[in-house]
Amino acid sequence: MLKSILSTATFRQSQITILGTLINGGLGAVFYILLARYLGPADFGLITIALTTMVLFSDIADIGTNTGLIRFVSSNLGQNRDKAYRFLKLSLEIKLFAWAISFLIIFFLAPFLATQLFHKAELILPLRLTAFGVGGALLFTFVTSALQAYQKYFLWSIINIFTNSLRLILLIILGYYLLLNVESSLIVYIILPFFGFFISLFILPARKILISKNEFSLSGELFKYNIPVAIFTVIAAFSARLDTYLNAILLSARDVGIYGAANNLVQIMPQLISALGLVAAPKFASFQNNTQMLTYFKKFQLFVLGLCLLGILTIPLSTYLIPILFGGQYQEAALPFIFLFLAMLIFLFSIPVHHSVIFYFGRPDVFIWVSIGHLLIIGGVGYFMIQNFGVLGASITVLVGTIFNFLYPLIWLLIKLKK
What do you get for the CA distance between the two ends of the chain, in Å? Predict the structure, then answer.
């Protein structure tokens, strides 16, 4: 069994994406570590709230476009390449329109959110800067999703590494010349995805995509698939950030910064999950019967189990390194980090289940209920836990929510296969 796993194309492709993700995640970790050390917990807390808002709006504004792009472009590249180009153009146009709407909402709501919701007036300008950042995030995920659909995993890794390297270099330069603050840090974070987008246009068949016609004739097919994806994505995007927002509302900016340090340290895991999904999603979408799917599923599940076991072994070292890397003022982040990291390992283990439901069975609507349940857990349990246990309570709630996110679709999958 082990030999058959190691000989699969998925394993070879996963090696590329995992290596790229580890390098990319390492660059991201260094970026956040330096940023946290330069700014201190209070200002880092403001950065955390602003970036959380940017990611939330970019996830919502995507309205499932990335998932639909991967599914329909992957399935049409071999048989109807012109149709694949039209799906790409339609996806890009949807993202640009969504950015325009998001920009207006964030820009004009920023004073209300900063003063009335978060009770931190200094957040007004950072929140308005994120209105630009949403566009960069949407455009960058368009090109990375397109590279995923084309199964150009090496180029996908290079683009991510290149943009994160430049971001880190700019941060170091600003820090060296004592020009680093909340606003300049956000500008550095925001501009690099735009750069990555334009660079990627030289890799993708940009001209063929842009000159394709009648792309709106595919909108019905795309949105029929995207609407369930969009619904659960919106709910999931909000529930995934609700812990940070509850911290921001109930706790001080310093506490948010402590939680942000622990949370950012585990972000290598979502990137690893994304890298594995990069390989797995087109494959699950291409299977024609249960036998093909289950053969692949079992090998893939054993592979992610091995990664989870390796991850568990790193926990003692990680907790030891937190005060060394971030500084003594972030000592309190160690215990929340353990619970957040365990939550990410469960998320990693659930990839085969999630992808089989979404891409093989074509049932993204299942995750609408998953997202609603997760939202109730984070909102209800999280509010109580944060009030009583602070950032530690937030991290425990995230772990409980992630366990639910794994068990619900697993039960659905088992029932479906039994039928």
Answer: 27
Q: Which of 3, 12, 301, 352 is nearest to 151 (CA)?
A: 12
> Where does residue 261 rank: exposed (0-12), middle (13-18), buried (19+ CB within 10 A)?
buried
**Number of domains forming the structure of the chain:** 1
Tokens standing for residue 138: 């949407």
Confidence (pLDDT) at 146: 82
pTM of the full structure: 0.75
In angstroms, the CA 262 to CA 311 distance is: 16
The answer to whether residues 28 and 268 touch, using CB atoms and an 8 Å cutoff, is yes
- Angle between helix 182-200 and 124-149 (nearest 10): 20
Taking only the tens place, the pLDDT of each residue in 382-400 is 999 999 999 999 999 999 9
Overall average pLDDT of the 262-281 stretch: 73
pLDDT at 5: 45
Query: 38: buried, middle or exposed (CB in 10 Å: 19+, 13-18, 0-12)?
Result: middle
The range of the structural domain enclosing residue 36 comes to 2-418
Among 160, 148, 142, smallest CA distance to 63 is for 142
Distance of CA 295 to the CA centre of its chain: 28
Q: How far apart are CA 52 and CA 24, in angstroms?
A: 19
Tokens of 136: 């960069």
Q: How many CA atoms lie within 13 A of 116 on its CB side?
A: 5
In the block, which residue shows the tokens 């939550």? Answer: 343
Amino acid at 396: I
Provide the angle, in degrees to the nearest 10, between the axes of the packed helices 268-286 and 65-76. 40
pLDDT tens-digit map of 7-17: 455 555 556 66
CA distance 15 to 129: 36
Q: What is the mean pLDDT of residues 274-279?
A: 67
In the three-class reduction of DSSP (H, G, I as helix; E, B as strand; rest coil), residue 364 is classed as coil
Amino acid in position 170 = L
